[in-house]
Amino acid sequence: MIKAQISDIKSLLSSPKSIVIVPHKNPDGDAMGSTLALYHYLKRYNHNATVIAPNDYPDFLKWLPGDDSVLKYDSQKEESDALLEQAEIIFTLDFNALHRAGEQLGNTIKANNCTKIMIDHHQEPDTYANYTYSDVTMSSTCEMVYNFIEMLDDTNKINASTATCLYVGIMTDTGSFRFPATTSRTHQIIGDLIDRGADNSQIHNKVYDTNSFSRLQLLGRALQNLKVIPELRTAYITLSQAELDKFNFKKGDTEGFVNYALSVKGIIFATIFIENHQDDIIKISLRSKGTFSVNEFSRAHFNGGGHTNAAGGRSESDLQSTIDKFISILPNYKNELSQT
């Protein structure tokens, strides 16, 4: 984002505005952390700011400061539409194509002629925003929101609530600071957030140490379903709707499961296939090590995308057909999987 754009945005934010902040559908820690962090920052300037999430998100994020103010578009559509219609500025965070907010919400955002500002670190951004801050090298959108506030010369406005939200997003999107996009700059920002009131030990406990008995049982089933294809350095996990139901699945329960497949010795490509009868799809999460691009793989075969080492996708075929397709495609990538 160039200085002229920052100057424009600073001018836009110089007086109170009606602002809506939107994360992607099925928001994760980075999506909710970044939107709520920006919400707290804007509130310090008396903006009429509201976070509108497309739908619900995991319980382990519902302790975040400001969570009680979040609207869910799918269940609070009338109130949300009124705020979107009145909005003078719409921020879209942690996604870069409007369909990622869901068809209805995406179309509503598109129809509003207000100023739109995108902050995101995913590849191949669309061009719907008036101002775009896009950087695929960043660890997280939360790191970018910190940079955005810094570019506005306003890090002194980061209080404990803002710092906590930013810490959560950076921590979760970096796999607790172990993924390759974690840089010395990331750690410098984390240090500053701790100094500004983020309680790192408490945050980690609230996000990661709140397992229910049923979630651990579901993890056990997922590991029982783990399959390894050693000659292609690939592993995958499947979970059917019946298995999810048996173990009382709640949104967010499968977060991080795919990383167990990636942790198998010798594996550089891992996938989890999760049956979802409500949306009539197979939800797919893909992870990799090294240079093998799951972003390109998912875009080419499973209507998805994301980052080089972390991406999502979907299939409208049944679970077994989706797995069969995945296995049939893999030999085409034998060279890439053997060279990484």
Protein described:
This protein is of the alpha/beta class and 340 residues long. Helices cover 41% and strands 18% of the residues. The chain has 14 helices and 12 strands. The strands form 2 sheets. It has a 6-stranded parallel sheet, with helices on both faces. A 6-stranded mixed sheet has the order 7-8-9-10-12-11.
How far apart are the first and last residues' alpha carbons, in Å? 33 Å
The name of the CATH topology of the largest domain is inorganic pyrophosphatase (n-terminal core)
Query: Could you say what the CATH architecture of the largest domain is?
Result: Alpha-Beta Complex
**Computed CA radius of gyration, to the nearest angstrom:** 20 Å
Helix content: 40-55%
The biggest sheet amounts to: 6 strands, parallel
Quaternary status: single chain
Mean pLDDT: 95
Low-confidence stretches: none
- Approximate shape: globular
* Overall number of domains: 2
Question: What is the N-to-C succession of helices and strands?
Answer: HEHEEHEHEEHHHHHEEHHEEHEEHH
- Count all strands and give the number: 12
Q: Class of the largest domain in CATH?
A: Alpha Beta
Percent of residues in beta strands? Answer: 15-25%
Content-based structural category: alpha/beta
CATH superfamily of the largest domain: inorganic pyrophosphatase (n-terminal core)
| Structure annotation, total helices | 14
**Strand order within the widest beta sheet:** 3-2-1-4-5-6
